[in-house]
Design goal:
heterotrimer, A alpha+beta, B alpha/beta, C mainly beta, B: FAD/NAD(P)-binding domain, FAD/NAD(P)-binding domain, Arc Repressor Mutant, subunit A, 3 domains, five-stranded parallel sheet, 16 helices, globular, C: mainly beta
Chain lengths: 371, 467, 100
């Protein structure tokens, strides 16, 4: 399979976005080659926090709210399919999630935002506002915070086991993930699309660019722009601890193994993926305010990764105007949207065009020229 | 803002103490941070304390007592020393984060010298994780720190520290149940080729021969040992192995509840890697070395690495290296030049000590089965309890490197941050991809390189929320 | 079993799971435990039983609970009179709904 040159589809990028789409294409019977970069490249997926999150998403962009909600609702199906195919246990839990607000101002702003979101969705999006006392009842040990919003749609999953599960499943369905194989050119050759790499050329009638920040350099081959920028996120991980966090809390969640993940920053730091103490200290300080009982918990590792941000922060899904069957995909919520990518987006790509529910995500929304 | 110190040295072993002495003599303000209760490093651990009981602890041997002279000079030098200080991050502009007595602080300096020494190469044999199994260095630490040892132990391994510790055990009057020597002996041509250079140090060679002769005479000694298994359920109960030059080898089993392992030492590079220094794979020593010039200046401005932390050469070379680095730091910061005669003495000494290494590295090369374990049940990552089978299953998916592997199976995610599994995982993955081991990059290490509590970290923010 | 060759004058007492152990001023806790035949210092579902291995702070296998602090390296800890120690139980993840 390593030597195979002609495929039904090629996905450039072996992060969560690329793997989910490749998995989805494989489920539809397409042989799929994933071309992935090196071990030390920017690996946004490996720095993912692991939230399957709906709360607050798309408050300024209803199609994104719908898309996140539908992905969250498809997540149990994705987890079940991966488990059935590979035995992967992803530790998916969708019992709801909390967004803790430190101050009353933060809380009232948040409530207003979620109320608007719920109205836009005709009540399909549900949430509850909790004052500190109500919050303390469902999360013992909560600190001096103003309160929280709770939404039943939210949850969390192991992003690393998701990656491994997708990788494994792709191999189970006549796909192949080729690592350390950067793409240097993309051209149309007859009905096929040809992808050039240092390991030679590969062809397929379908191509998906899902190379994260790498899309910036590759999108022009498709006549697209993908004007994305890196945003650094730092997270810290504690030693394994007995269960003490009942619901994932945007910046705090406890994994199935017991580690507590503490996040996360939103920094414009260029392509710098280092972990910095001032940011780590700020993250720690916020976590300590939310759960003072974590004070003695030991941080045993940290991580920094670059989110792939579009100008408005929402995903970009586009079809090439020049090369039939070629698509470009960019987003920073690779875990939440994994189910939508694997089950919905992959079918669109298989069929050869993006459905009406996805047209709003085109990069044409950034065109400033008058229509 | 004025930095807190001219130089901060991490580690108060032979190299760290020597660096401090020379830097302080050159008029620099020096702080030495060491994570142990007393200075001396691992080789001269508790030297100051023990020197008062020299008679009753004579079993530690002459090489150990030699350390007292340097420790005394270090104390007299005026350099500031902070014991039980755990350094967990180096940042820019040059500063480091350290926890002392539960309180984290940030200290800045014009230069930072990493004299973090070495630790023993992980020995992933079947059962090495069982209680009762320790490193030979660990057993030696118990001897030095509190005159404590165990009767009836089995020593498995090879190398100078291996023979020295067994000799110390015999001198201290502990019974030894078996010595399983995994050394390949003088057989290989490359080892023999390195011998002439090593003859620069005839005394050291003779000492090694004396140790070996004595061990052969006074313990149940087995040569050419391989196929080692440490047996037991919740505690080690026996060592099973094969020995001898004959084919097939002779099988043997020695019951014991104390087994001490040793396959040489490797530089302690977690802090230098997490601080962004460039490293290269050292073929002969089969480990990563930070790339440094001959004074110890690393690839990162203002950071130096000296002693065994920059490559294994032993305590004698480490002392010389420390003096050389101390002089280089002084020259860089003040323009002061150490008299050339004083510096040459250290350079010659270091050359002499290093001359022995090509021979020793080959003679005491690690046993193949400890480099790339083949037994499916052998624990590879101690922290996460991952077996060889679990690690190779994740490799089987086709992972590009150590970091992807870590993401897929958690190897290296525990408290030790890969110190106990990194080289093994690297070797297994290189084998899997059929590429030379130096082409398989290591884990991307990040601070904190030692666990730090959330409160310690948060305190920084409360102290200066605007940074 | 480990034994100590000398008997310093500065005797102190530390407690292992409420059992008093004789120790000496300046002794490493790991050393005291080994000398009293306690070689399993920590236990967990993924790691099984573990005890001191490297004695220099790199392996993190000699973890104990000290007074109210959890998972402390006993090879890096100097014994003090009255110190109360317990075996560290790594109960990570147990009772988590995802384990079911």
């Amino acid at each position: 399979m390593e030597q195979q040159r002609n495929w039904d589809s090629i996905v450039v990028g072996g992060g969560l976005v690329g793997l989910a789409i490749a998995y989805g294409l494989g489920r539809l019977g397409r042989s799929c080659l994933v071309l992935d970069a090196g071990d030390l490249d920017f690996r946004a997926a490996r720095g993912n926090f692991g939230l399957v999150w709906v709360q607050g998403k798309g408050s300024g962009f209803p199609p994104y709210a719908d898309w996140s909600m539908s992905s969250s609702q498809s997540w149990p199906d994705l987890a079940a399919m991966l488990h059935e195919q590979t035995g992967a246990a992803l530790a998916l839990e969708q019992k709801g999630g909390l967004d803790v607000c430190l101050t009353e101002d933060e809380l009232s702003t948040r409530i207003a935002e979620l109320t608007t979101l719920s109205q836009h969705q005709n009540g399909r999006f549900q949430f509850q506002a909790l004052d500190r006392q109500a919050l303390a009842e469902i999360q013992p040990g909560i600190g001096e915070v103003a309160g929280a919003t709770w939404s039943p749609h939210d949850g969390h999953v192991s992003p690393l086991y998701l990656m491994r599960g997708l990788h494994d499943a792709i191999h189970h369905q006549s796909g192949y993930v080729k690592t350390s194989c950067p793409v240097t050119a993309i051209t149309q050759t007859g009905v096929d699309i040809q992808v050039t790499t240092p390991d030679g050329d590969f062809t397929a009638p379908r191509l998906v660019l899902a190379a994260g920040l790498g899309n910036r350099a590759l999108a022009p081959f498709l006549g697209l722009e993908q004007a994305i920028r890196p945003q650094r996120g730092q997270i810290m991980v504690t030693e394994k601890l007995p269960l003490q966090i009942r619901y994932p809390m945007v910046t705090l969640r406890q994994t199935a193994e017991g580690s507590i993940m503490i996040g996360d920053s939103h920094e414009d730091a260029g392509l710098d993926v280092s972990s910095t103490r001032p940011v780590m200290a700020e993250i720690a300080s916020r976590a300590q305010r939310i759960l003072p009982s974590l004070s003695d918990a030991k941080i045993i590792r940290s991580w920094a990764a670059l989110r792939v941000m579009s100008p408005d922060g929402y995903p970009i899904y586009d079809q090439s105007p020049n090369i039939a069957g070629a698509f470009a995909v960019t987003c920073h919520s690779g875990v939440t949207l994994a189910a939508a990518h694997a089950l919905d987006l992959a079918r669109c790509i298989h069929d050869g065009y993006l459905g009406p529910h996805l047209t709003a995500f085109s990069e044409r929304r950034f065109d400033v020229s008058p229509a | 803002m004025m930095p807190d110190y001219d130089v901060i040295i991490v580690g108060a072993g032979p190299a760290g103490m020597a660096t401090a002495i020379t830097a302080q003599q050159s008029g620099l303000s020096v702080l030495v941070l060491d994570d142990q209760p007393d200075h001396g490093g691992q080789v001269w651990r508790d030297i100051q304390q023990n020197h008062q009981h020299r008679q009753s602890r004579s079993f530690l041997g002459e090489d150990y007592w030699k350390g007292h002279q340097l420790a005394k000079a270090f104390l007299a030098s005026g350099a500031e020393i902070q014991h039980q200080a755990v350094v967990w991050q180096i940042a820019h502009p040059l500063s480091l984060s350290v926890t002392i007595a539960g309180i984290a602080q940030n200290l800045s300096a014009r230069a930072i010298v990493l004299a973090t020494g070495a630790y023993e190469r992980p020995v992933p044999l079947p059962g090495w994780h069982l209680p009762g199994v320790m490193t030979v260095g660990g057993a030696q630490t118990l001897l030095k720190a509190s005159a404590t040892g165990a009767d009836g132990a089995v020593f498995v391994g090879t190398g100078p520290l291996f023979y020295l510790t067994i000799t110390q055990y015999l001198d201290a009057g502990f019974s030894v149940a078996g010595v399983c020597d995994t050394g390949a002996g003088l057989g290989s041509p490359s080892t023999l080729l390195a011998l002439p250079l090593a003859l620069v140090q005839p005394k050291m060679l003779m000492k090694g021969l004396r140790w070996l002769r004595r061990i052969k005479a006074e313990t149940p000694y087995f040569a050419h040992v391989s196929d080692i298994q440490l047996e037991g359920q919740d505690h080690v109960e026996a060592v099973a192995f094969a020995h001898g030059k004959g084919r097939p080898k002779t099988k043997m089993r020695i019951p014991s509840s104390h087994v001490f392992l040793h396959q040489g030492v490797i530089p302690n590079v977690n802090l230098s890697m997490a601080s962004g220094l460039t490293h290269h794979w050292h073929h002969r020593q089969m480990c990563w070395h930070p790339i440094c010039d001959r004074h110890g200046a690393s690839s990162v401005e203002g950071i130096y690495v000296t002693g065994d932390a920059s490559g294994i050469a032993g305590s004698g070379a480490a002392v010389a290296s420390g003096h050389i680095t101390g002089a280089a730091v002084a020259k860089a910061l003040t323009g002061t030049t150490i008299p050339i005669t004083a510096l040459w003495r250290h350079r010659v000494k270091r050359l002499q000590h290093r001359a022995l290494r090509p021979f020793l590295d080959r003679l005491y090369a690690p046993l193949a089965e400890t480099l790339t374990p083949i037994d499916a049940n052998t624990i590879i990552c101690r922290c996460e309890g991952l077996t060889q089978a679990q690690v190779t299953a994740a490799m089987g998916l086709g992972v590009a490197g150590l970091n992807q592997l870590k993401a897929y199976c958690r190897a290296g995610m525990g408290r030790c941050q890969g110190r106990m599994c990194g080289l093994t995982v690297q070797a297994l993955l290189a084998d899997h991809h059929k590429i030379p081991i130096q082409d398989m990059p290591y884990y991307r290490l990040r601070p904190p390189v030692r666990p730090v509590t959330l409160a310690e970290l948060a305190a920084f923010h409360q102290a200066d929320p605007d940074i | 079993m480990f034994r100590r060759l000398d008997t310093p004058l500065s005797e102190i007492t530390i407690f292992w799971e409420d059992r008093p152990l004789t120790a000496y001023q300046g002794e490493l806790v790991a050393s005291v435990l080994l000398r009293h035949g306690i070689s399993i210092t920590h236990h967990g579902p993924t790691t099984g039983s573990r005890g001191p291995y490297c004695m220099m702070g790199v392996c993190f296998d000699c973890l104990v609970d000290v007074d109210n602090r959890k998972a402390i390296q006993s090879c890096q800890l100097v014994a003090k009179d009255g110190l109360r120690l317990n075996r560290h139980l790594n109960l990570a993840g147990t009772g988590h709904p995802n384990d079911a």
